[in-house]
Write a structure and sequence with these properties.
Blueprint lengths: L5 E7 L2 E9 L3 E5 L7 H12 L3 E5 L11 H13 L14 H16 L4 E6 L5 H4 L6 E7 L9 H4 L6 H12 L4 E6 L7 H11 L3 E6 L30 H17 L1
Parallel strand pairs: 3-4, 3-5, 5-6, 6-7, 7-8
Antiparallel strand pairs: 1-2, 2-4
Length: about 260
């Protein structure tokens, strides 16, 4: 399923990662969830390409193209928790990997041109698009079920996994007309409602939230996570009119509004 993608790599400050690239047009960085670049993540990336964008899809953990399973998810989350690139409990500090991602934004914009770059983070990477807004060319950030910091305490449930400097940059950019799109299932404990409440409070009308009832999640894949979690990938029902499919369409429309 990745045969149409060019497997490249990108290095910044000695940190090198595989990046799968496909398409033409303004750049969109698709950041996968746990356990890795699954078939559902590739399907969503294909939709972005078909809409007229050039997708950059970095691989952080796992194996590109491997389907999700309980054991695979457990293995990937264990690797992430011990990795120095991810700060899974940091409430007011972003993960170190976001430095590399901001460099990727600069690279993608220089290579693809256009007004700017879009990005979607999912689950573990869900909040990374906020930190990437330190780069002026990041014009279309999307947060799909942002799950960091892990909501293991009351204060972390509402935290955004960004530093005070990054948060002030977000406020300033939104005050000047920038927008942020976020999505979650209402019963998702990994991405609690307090997190979106914080985004509404900090960003005001610049934050657009899509919050779906759990019954709209794909029942065929719900057994992997217990409750619906992955809005545009694992728990999406690929049928027009389904709320999850319409959410995916809204993401692509958001990219069009901001980048084309």
């Amino acid at each position: 399923m990745l045969s149409d993608y060019e497997q490249t790599s990108f290095t910044d400050q000695g940190r090198k990662k595989p990046v799968y690239v496909r398409g033409s047009g303004p750049a969109v960085i698709v950041m996968h969830e746990i356990p890795g670049i699954t078939p559902q993540v590739v399907r969503f990336a294909d939709w972005v390409v078909d809409a007229g964008f050039r997708v950059y899809m970095p691989l952080f953990v796992g194996e590109a193209g491997r389907p999700a399973s309980r054991s695979y998810m457990l293995k990937s989350i264990t690797r992430v928790c011990i990795s120095r690139e991810f700060s899974v409990l940091a409430a007011h500090q972003s993960s170190p990997i976001t430095d590399w991602l901001r460099a990727l934004v600069r690279h993608a914009h220089a290579e693809s041109g256009g007004k700017g770059v879009g990005a979607i983070g999912m689950c573990l990477t869900g909040n990374f698009a906020l930190s990437m807004m330190l780069e002026p060319s990041m014009m279309a950030p999307v947060l799909s079920q942002p799950s960091l910091p892990f909501p293991v305490s009351t204060d972390r449930k509402g935290a955004l996994h960004v530093s005070p400097v990054e948060l002030q940059c977000l406020r300033d950019r939104c005050a000047r007309g920038d927008k942020v799109l976020g999505m979650r299932f209402k019963g998702d404990r990994a991405c609690p409602p307090e997190r979106f409440e914080t985004l509404r409070r900090e960003l005001g009308p610049a934050f657009e939230a899509i919050e779906l009832e759990d019954r709209y999640g794909n029942p065929d894949t719900a057994k992997l996570t217990g409750t619906p979690h992955s809005v545009v990938t694992l728990h999406l029902i690929d049928k027009d009119g389904e709320p999850t499919k319409e959410a995916a369409k809204r993401v692509i429309e958001f990219f069009r509004e901001r980048l084309q």
